[in-house]
Amino acid sequence: MSSSEQALVSLLSQFALSFDGAVLGAALAYAAVRTVLKLTASCSALDELRKAPYVSVSDLRHIISDGDSGKSESDHKLVVVRGTVEARSSVEGNWKSVQPNVLISQESGDRAVIIQRTQMCIFNEWKGFFGWTSDLRAIFGRTFRKQESTSFRTVPFVLVDEGHSPYSDFVVVNMDGSRHPLPLTTVYHQLQPVSATPYTFLQALFGHEYPVGVLDEEKILPLGKNISAVGICSFKNGVPVIKSCKDFPHFLCEMTKDQMILDLVFKTKFLFWSSVVLGSLSVGVLGYSVVRNWNRWKQWRQQRRLQDSGNDSTMSQLDSNNIPIYGDFGTASDNEEAVDPEDEVSSNVPDGQLCVICLMRRKRSAFIPCGHFVCCERCAMSVERDSAPKCPVCRQQIRSSVRIYDS
Question: Can you tell me the distance from the alpha carbon of 208 to that of 199, in angstroms, rounded to the nearest whole number?
């Protein structure tokens, strides 16, 4: 791992563990809330799927009547229809059926209603000898970047009962607004390598990206394939039409109703235990952070009280002994602290016994819990007043300091 990546990982870890893990706890809580929302949606979809009727195309008219077409989309109920894919032009029974409106795969020659062709160009991003080579992965490994272009073609199609011809009953599949995955079949998949040229060698040498291959893939929804359609069914001009439901994870799939129920049950269990684990971790981390910050605040407040009481006792003692403190009139300023005679600046103090912060006074205080004896009493008190006090030597979090007296 390079130095820049190490610095980035260190910065992210320090940010996640800042405030004694409060940021990490908040991130875990956010993930737990998102998981609970997904769990709620999955449970709702599972309940709707269990209540949905599972019918064939010929039995669909017994479930949905023409009077239901005037209802709003929210009033329609979910229906699971099992049928065979067929082009709409072949079942309409008019002059359009003379020339069926179907798509032909260029590679396999299969007849289909949906063809998705993807061409992906893969580029090599190795940085070369004259590029950025501080990372060992840039020398021994290769990273790839992909540029993808997809063409999607579809024709109107319907679902019919398997083995029934001519087709008297059918349901039209409305694909408008659907973003659900489709049960496509891969008929062509080939990776064609790009031949290297002298220009490619120069690109690799100076760290520029260069193409290494082209991935060509074709997926189709062929005629005669048995699929299940899950959605809202209604009648349009006397013809049943099924449309996708945005709140349901499936629309067209190869699974039956029982298989979809098992899939949603597994997903629901996974989301449930994920929400339990993430919620428990977030509560534990946030609770630990709250307790730690509360204890630190109480210690800081107690130290401030002790310091204020110590300053007040020193001032009263000096006043009782009639010792002038600062100024020409024998009064001390409110913002200044009393000076210990033994802690005054001395030119006879060896270098090894000077405070590491001011380099003027003798070392008098040790930090707790690290135990470093490196500061004078004034500098130690100034370090303790910081919002996050740390030892100037080991950078460890400190709780307080103690005055060391020579015997």
Answer: 11
| Structural domain spans, the chain | 53-254, 339-407
Strands (E), 90-155: 103-104, 111-124, 144-154
Q: Residue 81's closest CA among 162, 181, 180?
A: 162
pTM of the full structure:
0.62
Amino acid letter for position 280? S
Q: How far is CA 181 from the centre of its chain?
A: 22
Beta bridge partners of 120: 148, 215
Q: CA-CA distance, 264 to 269, in Å (whole number)? A: 9
Both tokens assigned to 352: 């090894």
- The percent of the chain in helix, strand and coil, each rounded to the nearest 5, is 40, 25, 35
Q: Are 146 and 121 in contact (CB under 8 A)?
A: yes
Residue of 148, 152, 154 lying closest to 117 (CA atoms): 152
Read off the DSSP letter of residue 84: E
CA separation (Å) from 79 to 2, 50, 82, 88, 94?
Answer: 56, 10, 10, 21, 29
Q: Provide the token pair at 358.
A: 């001011």
Helix (H, G, I), strand (E, B) or coil at 164: coil
**CA dihedral of residues 291, 293, 296, 300 (deg, nearest 10):** -130
Element holding 266 (H helix, E strand): helix 257-320
pLDDT band at 129 (very low <50, low <70, confident <90, very high): very low
Q: Assign domain 339-407 to its CATH architecture.
A: 2-Layer Sandwich (3.30)
Phi, psi of 368 (to 5 degrees): -120, 130
394 touches 374 (CB < 8 A) = no
Q: By the 8 A CB rule, do 171 and 101 touch?
A: no
Place of tokens 């449970």: 43
CA distance 254 to 229: 9
Q: Angle CA(343)–CA(346)–CA(347) in degrees, nearest 5?
A: 160
Q: Do you know the residue count of the chain?
A: 407
Q: Residue 44 and residue 22: Cα distance in Å, rounded? A: 33
Q: What is the per-residue pLDDT across 176-229, written as a single tens digit (0 to 9) for each? A: 888 899 999 999 988 888 776 776 666 666 556 667 778 889 999 999 999 999
